[in-house]
Amino acid sequence: MTPVRALSGGERNRLLLARLFLRPSNLMILDEPTNDLDVETLELLEELIDGYQGTVLLVSHDRQFVDNTVTECWIFEGNGEIGTFVGGYHDAQQQRAAYRQHKAAAPAKATGNASKPAAEKGDAKRSVNKLSYNLARELEQLPQKTGAAGSAYRRTAGEDESSRLLQSGTRSDATGAG
């Protein structure tokens, strides 16, 4: 067996990712997980993140990877502001462009209401013209997931009933009644 210190950077990253996904968790924080990964491992990582049942906080400069894995982007805008956008990186860029265009058009209109642009600002930032790829895929899988959850619930309820009947039968045998 090869010691970890003898592994390359990419091999160490693959080992670390394997260990992370083998442990049960509901929150995973990944900082630049695509560094030193080959294409095959990168695609596998995308699939694993897509199937992960918890929340993933991901920091990455790999825009394609972000587009393929996230449902919401937080982008540091400067001046201590963080923009929150639905979808991947390219969705966020489209929303930012729409917001800037809306903001640039607002001064051209003569308005006496100062609070209206602030309300429109929030709406424009959060508006979504289309579903991102991941959201559309998640929406398509929703009926299957809810059906599977219902089946699991019925199966568990049946097991609970069987267990209860077995326990009540065991108690009556142990007490001599029956």
Helix content: 55-70%
Number of beta-strand segments? 4
Q: Helix count, per DSSP?
A: 6
Note the overall shape: flat
CATH level-four homologous superfamily name of the largest domain: P-loop containing nucleotide triphosphate hydrolases
CATH architecture of the largest domain: 3-Layer(aba) Sandwich
**How far from one another are the termini?**
61 Å
What's the CATH first level of the largest domain? Alpha Beta
Beta-strand level of the residues, as a percent range?
Answer: 5-15%
Overall pLDDT: 78
Low-confidence stretches: 124-129, 170-175
What value does the Rg take, in angstroms?
25 Å
Number of domains: 2
The major sheet is characterized as: 2 strands, parallel
Based on secondary structure, the structural category is alpha+beta
Keywords: ATP-binding, Nucleotide-binding
InterPro entries: ABC_transporter-like_ATP-bd (IPR003439), ABCF_ATPase (IPR051309), P-loop_NTPase (IPR027417)
GO molecular function: ATP binding; ATP hydrolysis activity
